[in-house]
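User: Predict the structure for this protein chain, please.
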Amino acid sequence: MTLSATAHDRLNREMDRLRRAGQPFAIATIVRTIDATSAKPGAKALILADGTLAEGWVGGGCARAAVARAALDALRDGQPQFVSLRPSDLLDAEGVSAGDNRDGIRFARNDCPSKGSMDIFVEPVLPLPQLVICGAGPVALALADLSARFDMHRTLCAPGALPVPAPDVDTCVDSFAFDTAPDRQRFVVIATQGKGDDAALRAALACGAEYVAFVGSKRKFATLSARLQSDHGICAQALARVHAPAGLDLHAITPEEIALSILAQIVATRRKGRRT
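Assistant: Here is the predicted structure, written as structure tokens:
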């Protein structure tokens, strides 16, 4: 069984909806079948972050359970999974057990009466990382412009100071109340240049961002940190996580060079421990 045109349209519409909402999901695709299986090569299914199969078809209960487990692992690790669903006699003949992982293949048992086998590719689809730029000065605008070349959802936060015309970003916010939805990498850059430094930094520290950077000198940030600790009770450990001054030490001078150094540091943070 493969997807009909109507079912395929439903799956695509749901994928689009989840992407727009910034929600993670996984797509499972049948790539090979042997003997009797209800799903055939090319069949697809969409699995939500809780393991629910929302759209599509990959076969009966045995297949759905194995796919759901693989989807949860893929979403947790951010890496695709390849599942080989086989009857017990084939697993025994090859000396593998359900749950074994060999050379990137995850084996699962098919206890259905059909005794068919199928291979399933499960691909996670994660929300784009969010780049939040606080401020509307030269460095903030240079960062908004240069970051368009990177695969991130970009938000510019500039209370009472949004430039006209607005820069080409995904979202402009006239406040520091930016999106804090979970399940998304978030990188926050404070480039307020004295116009709302305290409020922007408090919002950045409260959102659980993976990366927070402050555009300014070490002396300026030290003064700001002392004020946040005394006036707002921000702990020293939280402030120690802030990259200040922002960016890798490239001896940057111009706003564009500073923006480049910040993006380089974000890429290093984003890709740390990953091959891709």
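Residues 5-21 form the longest helix (17 residues).
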